[in-house]
TrEMBL record:
<protein>
    <submittedName>
        <fullName>LLM class flavin-dependent oxidoreductase</fullName>
        <ecNumber>1.-.-.-</ecNumber>
    </submittedName>
</protein>
<keyword id="KW-0288">FMN</keyword>
<keyword id="KW-0503">Monooxygenase</keyword>
<dbReference type="InterPro" id="IPR050172">
    <property type="entry name" value="SsuD_RutA_monooxygenase"/>
</dbReference>
<keyword id="KW-0560">Oxidoreductase</keyword>
<dbReference type="Pfam" id="PF00296">
    <property type="entry name" value="Bac_luciferase"/>
</dbReference>
<feature type="domain" description="Luciferase-like">
    <location>
        <begin position="25"/>
        <end position="330"/>
    </location>
</feature>
<dbReference type="GO" id="GO:0016491">
    <property type="term" value="F:oxidoreductase activity"/>
</dbReference>
<dbReference type="InterPro" id="IPR036661">
    <property type="entry name" value="Luciferase-like_sf"/>
</dbReference>
<keyword id="KW-0285">Flavoprotein</keyword>
<dbReference type="InterPro" id="IPR011251">
    <property type="entry name" value="Luciferase-like_dom"/>
</dbReference>
Length: 366
């Protein structure tokens, strides 16, 4: 079956909605997490920014107010020692009963990294991430003290007494669309995360990820593939497109400030990642691709994040998601422009359609 991931934040805000209430709103965070659990999501992503709330604390709080929902905590290597971070993750995984996974991001923006004191370039960050994950995985696996000496890290006699609840380790998700990203993710990722490109380009990226896994001596089938979209639903396709155009008008109007402290636009033109450049290239080739992929929102925001939409009725968007499943996607990350309300709608109208079709296929195969 396909895994569904949502995304939670600590305030009610998006590209079309200014922050309502406090930036760290406990009641909203609780309701947002519970809405995803009730909607049937498997996990929720908790993002990482230099201006944002700490993902560990958000996950711990949300886990205390849910029972089943998993948490995918984004993390940038380089700010916390790998042995320390490995114990932190293992501790939280134990206390939540195995509901933790991690999403590794090496960092797309030099400006963003420097806000937290990291002055390395992107190529160096990927080398550091590779080494970081080597130490983390050894920390989770070790039953005897171990030592490690590399380009970035040196530890002596390291041993954690805190095993992960999820054996042998928590799932590692990994993002990026560059050759360095493929190389490092191919070595370490359980799930490789991509932004929502057209089907042909997504298939090309999947092939690159699998080739990198094979080059690392892994079975490429071991690596799951995630894609991310911003579905815009309506009762009919026509209604969905009317809603999509209204969302675009707000974004293009520039009346809603960034959800953070004004730092979000740093990537729009000066420091866009390889993934952002790929989304913008798709937007230049056309506004609508395949069954329902819409690139106008990516273009309007500079593709600063997962920003392509799937537009249509629940039936149309479900078929579009299944098109990606058919080319090898195993995980789908979706979030809306009306964050909490859309999460509820996805659980009511969209997820059941996809899961029902997949169950039907599985039964037919048997």
């Amino acid at each position: 079956m396909v895994e569904f991931i949502g995304m939670i934040r600590t305030s009610d805000a998006s590209e079309i909605r200014p922050v309502r209430g406090p930036f760290l709103d406990r009641d909203y965070t609780r309701r947002f997490a519970q809405a995803h659990e009730e909607a049937g999501f498997d996990r929720v992503l908790i993002g990482y920014h230099s201006w944002d709330a700490d993902g560990f604390a958000v996950a711990g709080y949300a886990a205390a107010h849910t029972e089943r929902l998993g948490f995918l905590i984004a993390h940038r290597p380089g700010f916390v020692a790998p042995t320390v971070w490995a114990r932190k993750i293992a501790t939280l995984d134990q206390f939540t009963g195995g509901r933790i996974a991690v999403h590794i991001i090496s960092g797309a923006s030099d400006t963003e990294q420097r806000r937290d004191g990291d002055h390395t370039d992107k190529t160096t960050r990927y080398r550091r991430t590779d080494e970081y994950l080597d130490v983390v995985r050894r920390t989770w696996a070790a039953t005897e003290p171990f030592s490690f000496e590399g380009e970035f890290y040196r530890v002596e006699g390291a041993l954690s007494r805190v095993p992960t609840f999820t054996r042998p380790r928590v799932p590692i998700y990994f993002g990026g669309s560059s050759a360095d990203a493929y190389r490092v993710g191919g070595r370490h990722a359980d799930v490789y995360a991509l932004w929502g490109e057209p089907l042909r380009e997504t298939a090309e990226q999947i092939a690159s990820v699998r080739a990198a896994a094979a080059a690392a001596g892994r079975d490429p089938a071991e690596v799951g593939i995630s894609v991310s979209f911003r579905p815009i639903l309506g009762r009919t396709d026509e209604e969905a497109w009317e809603r999509a155009r209204s969302i675009l008008r707000v974004i293009e109007g520039g009346t809603v400030p960034p959800a953070g402290n004004g730092s979000a636009p740093y990537v729009l033109n000066r420091e866009s990642s390889a993934g952002s450049r790929r989304l913008l290239a798709a937007a230049d080739r056309g506004e609508v691709h395949d069954r329902a992929l819409w690139t106008a929102t990516a273009k309007a925001t500079g593709a600063a994040g997962n920003s392509t939409a799937l537009v249509g009725s629940p039936e149309t968007v479900a078929r579009a998601l299944l098109d990606y499943v058919d080319i090898g996607v195993t995980t789908i990350l979706i979030r809306g422009y009306e964050p909490l309300e859309d999460a509820v709608a996805y659980g009511r109208d969209l997820l059941p359609l996809v899961r029902s079709e997949l169950a039907h296929r599985a039964a037919a195969a048997v």
